[in-house]
Amino acid sequence: MTVAPVEVAPGVHFVEGPASNWTILSGDGTLTLVDAGYPADLELVEASLRSVAAGSGPELPRLTSVLVTHGHSDHIGTVTALRRRHEFDVLAAPAEVPNVTRDELHQVTVGDVLPHLYKPRFARWVLHAVRAGGLGDVGVADVVPLVPGTPRTFSGHRVVPTAAVGHTPGHTVFALPDDDVLITGDALVTGHPTSRLEGVQMLHPIFHDDLAEAGRTYGRLVEHRARVVLPGHGPALLR
Ligand SMILES: [Zn+2]
């Protein structure tokens, strides 16, 4: 399978992966990856980085940063393997760092999923998640704290990390105000293998660490008027 990055704004490339999404920022001779798929997505992530790099001019840009919305295995799954090939910083909100390093685990468990396995969509999703390495140890060492509310520049793009907690204790969305883009991770999605719904929605309740908090966060994000919304699951929203 191949996945082609789609340039949704200048230097902002969205990849809709097999079961979760990632985004590549390009500019200033560097690349920044936002989220990184399941462990099994390694070659797809690499191919998408090469594709964006090849379109960036004669001087191939270097991957310098990986920004993490949250520490679930379908969002950080390739990071450790990518580090064997590239040298980059991994950045996450301080409240999310323990979930990324796996000093703590805030993720759906087999016990949460069991009561739903009679539903074909859940059964198919579990099979995919297991095959894609979702149960493996994906903990990432040496994570640099990224302070919510403090704008930083990555690959020439102004990025404002913004706390959007509930799905996990430190879940973070990334606003790119100059590009009119909002990267929402799993705080707001537009689809999921377990969902029959299309369009803007919350993930199924079992996936959230704190459902009430996740609901409040979702309510805020729905009001956000970015022209481009890039969710962790489902297609990009362009308006
Ligand atoms: Zn998640």
Strand order of the largest sheet: 1-2-3-4-5-6-7
Gross CATH architecture: 4-Layer Sandwich
Work out the helix count.
7
Rg estimate, integer Å: 16 Å
Distance linking N and C termini: 28 Å
Structurally, the number of domains stands at 1
Helicity level = 10-25%
Helix/sheet category: alpha/beta
CATH class: Alpha Beta
Give the number of DSSP strands: 13
Biggest sheet features: 7 strands, mixed
User: How confident overall, as mean pLDDT?
Assistant: 94
Structure summarized in a few sentences:
The protein is 23% helix and 25% strand.
Q: What report would you give on this structure?
A:
The chain is of the alpha/beta class and 239 residues long. The chain has a single domain, classed as Metallo-beta-lactamase, Chain A (4-Layer Sandwich), CATH 3.60.15.10. The chain is built from seven helices and 13 strands. It has helices spanning 42-54, 73-76, 79-83, 97-101, 110-113, 120-131, 211-222; strands at residues 6-9, 12-16, 21-27, 30-34, 62-67, 89-92, 143-145, 152-154, 157-163, 172-176, 181-185, 228-231, 237-238. The strands form two sheets. Strands 1-2-3-4-5-6-7 form a seven-stranded mixed sheet. It binds zinc ion. Zinc ion binds next to loops.
